[in-house]
Amino acid sequence: MRRTLASAVLCWPLALLAGERCLAIDGDTLVCNHRKVRLTNVYAAELNQPGGYAAKRRLQFLVSSGEVVLRPYGLDRYGRTLAEVYVNGRRIEQADIGPRAGRGAAWTGDRHLPGHSKRPTASPGTPALVPR
Questions:
Q1: What is the pLDDT along the chain (132 residues), one digit of tens a residue?
Q2: Which residues does 122 contact at the CB level (< 8 Å), separation at least 6?
């Protein structure tokens, strides 16, 4: 019994290193081990917009359903880590969270990745968005 208990106590810290512990802030932002992480390929509605809370619930369900691994790319202008997020080896995609929304709705590609230079696109007959 003592040997089993000693093994469990010694191995417990290793289990903490296996994956990130994350909570959803909204549909495209997490807090993982006390740092904010912005998903690079997901553009969800804000919490005060229609679909915002549903997107947050979907993201929270995903990150709580398995081992979370981050693939960081750097920091954004707000100091958040920009990262692709994987759960059980599968990358979280836009389709997992819901329809594309917010300021990112008119963009194509992964605009948060370094070196990304695509401009916003607009449908015919609508004014184009101008980045700030």
A1: 555 444 444 444 433 345 778 999 999 999 999 999 999 989 999 999 999 999 999 999 999 999 999 999 999 999 999 999 999 999 999 999 988 875 555 555 555 555 554 444 444 554 444 444
A2: 106, 128, 129
